[in-house]
């Protein structure tokens, strides 16, 4: 009986965690990281879940082709610039690139062309976690929006997955994630794979 009671309690807890968040829940789950709190973004992060919203399906399709994705935010002597390094594994090919983002308040921005802009802000989340809301305003007037859940660790407990889904729902991402990390191989630390570096801004 004790075992059955324990199973019932765990099942109830998981069902409550998976339930749709209330407006009051979303107030606590949608807190944007302040400019003073941006120091927590630095270091290496593994992408665990990703959502895409856009006027076309290309964004979500791109996410579905990824095996693994790892990023790193690097400090610079200039407090107004952050180096963003990205390593993506697709099939057996690793692609790396780096971009200089400009810090604007509690956001980071990058403009690869005159009429297009990447902008990211971050939301408060658990320790050892990073939640990035990423927007790409295209030169053709379309907009792609991504919600990216990162962790320091490769493994993610089920409770963490359910919390990610609750935050996603609060932010209007009601569909299942377009990418979920399944412990696939990450890009190696040192490699001669393809690398693209964008010019300093």
UniProtKB/TrEMBL annotation:
One of its GO terms (cellular component) is extracellular region. Residues 1-19 form the signal peptide. It is found in: Secreted. The keyword Signal applies. Keywords: Glycoprotein, Secreted, Signal. InterPro entries: Calycin. Gene3D superfamilies: 2.40.128.20. PANTHER family: ALPHA-1-ACID GLYCOPROTEIN, ALPHA-1-ACID GLYCOPROTEIN 1. It comes from the Eukaryota. The keyword Hydrolase does not apply. It comes from Channa argus (Northern snakehead). This is Saxitoxin and tetrodotoxin-binding protein 1. SUPFAM superfamilies: Lipocalins (SSF50814).
């Amino acid at each position: 009986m004790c075992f059955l009671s324990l199973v019932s309690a765990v099942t109830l807890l998981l069902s409550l965690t998976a339930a749709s968040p209330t407006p009051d829940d979303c107030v606590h789950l949608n807190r944007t990281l302040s400019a003073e709190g941006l120091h927590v973004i630095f270091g290496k992060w593994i992408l665990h879940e990703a959502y895409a919203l856009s006027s076309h399906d290309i964004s979500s399709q791109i996410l579905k082709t990824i095996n693994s994705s790892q990023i790193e935010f690097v400090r610079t002597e200039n407090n107004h610039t952050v180096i963003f390094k990205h390593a993506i594994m697709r099939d057996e090919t690793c692609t790396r690139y780096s971009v200089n983002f400009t810090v604007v308040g509690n956001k980071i921005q990058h403009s690869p062309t005159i009429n297009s802009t990447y902008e990211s802000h971050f939301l408060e989340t658990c320790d050892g976690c990073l939640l990035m809301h990423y927007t790409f305003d295209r030169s053709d007037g379309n907009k792609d929006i991504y919600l990216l859940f990162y962790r320091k660790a490769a493994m993610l407990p089920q409770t963490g997955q359910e919390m990610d889904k609750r935050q996603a729902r609060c932010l209007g991402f009601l569909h299942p994630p377009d990418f979920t990390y399944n412990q696939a191989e990450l890009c190696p630390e040192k490699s001669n794979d393809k690398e693209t570096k964008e010019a300093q801004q």
